[in-house]
Every structure is written in structure tokens, then in C-alpha cells.
């Protein structure tokens, strides 16, 4: 019986953590900082959102579409060419 309760609590905690992360809103100040930083690098920002604990900026540069991933300190950790 104890194992069943422990399993149920673990499942509920995992679901709650996932729901909390996915509902985090992007604040205006952070969005503006990301936009300014990437615009200075030549990108035209289309959209910024939070996913999987990282900021994702969707941008254009030199006729190509990019997905740019930033950590909580706003360091670019990965840039992908979006097909």
C-alpha cells in the first residue's frame, strides 16, 4: 500500500512541476533585452517564448530563419537554422 501511495505522489509531483514550467510567462523586460541583444547581432526577431526552461527566439538573418536558444542569464547556448 505504501508503494502505491509513493508512486501516486511521484506521478502527481511530476505533473505539477511540468505544468508550472509550461505556464511561466515571458516578461516584457526580458523580451526587450533579448530583442535588443539579437538585433545588435543582425537578427530580425519574430517571436520569443519560453520552452523547456530556456528562452527561444525565432528570428531572420540574411534570408534564413533561425531558432536561438538562451539560458536564464541570456547567454546564447545554441543557434539552429530553421528549415
Could you characterize what this model shows?
- 41% of the residues lie in helices and 36% in strands.
- It is α+β, with helices and mostly antiparallel strands and 83 residues long.
- The chain has one domain: Nuclear Transport Factor 2, Chain: A.
- It has a 4-stranded antiparallel β-sheet with strand order 1-2-3-4, covered by helices on one side.
- It is elongated, with a radius of gyration of 18 Å.
- The relative contact order is 0.12.
- About 11% of the residues have low confidence.
- This is PepSY domain-containing protein.
- Keywords: Signal.
- It comes from Roseovarius faecimaris.
- InterPro entries: PepSY.
Assembly state: single chain
Report the end-to-end length measured between terminal Cα atoms: 51 Å
Helix count from the secondary structure assignment = 2
Q: How many structural domains can be distinguished in the coordinates? A: 1
CATH domain class name? Alpha Beta
Q: How many strands appear in the DSSP assignment?
A: 4
Give the second-level CATH assignment, the architecture. Roll
Mean pLDDT: 83
Question: Could you please say which CATH topology applies here?
Answer: Nuclear Transport Factor 2, Chain: A
Order of helices and strands: HHEEEE
Helix/strand-derived class? alpha+beta
Low-confidence stretches: 15-23
Keywords: Signal
Protein name: PepSY domain-containing protein
InterPro entries: PepSY (IPR025711)
Amino acid at each position: 500500500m505504501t508503494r502505491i501511495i509513493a508512486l501516486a505522489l511521484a506521478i502527481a509531483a511530476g505533473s505539477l512541476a511540468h505544468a508550472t514550467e509550461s505556464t511561466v510567462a515571458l516578461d516584457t523586460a526580458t523580451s526587450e533585452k533579448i530583442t535588443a541583444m539579437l538585433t545588435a547581432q543582425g537578427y530580425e526577431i519574430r517571436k520569443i517564448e519560453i520552452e523547456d526552461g530556456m528562452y527561444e527566439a525565432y528570428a531572420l538573418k540574411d534570408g534564413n530563419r533561425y531558432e536561438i536558444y538562451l539560458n536564464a542569464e541570456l547567454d546564447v547556448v545554441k543557434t539552429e537554422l530553421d528549415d
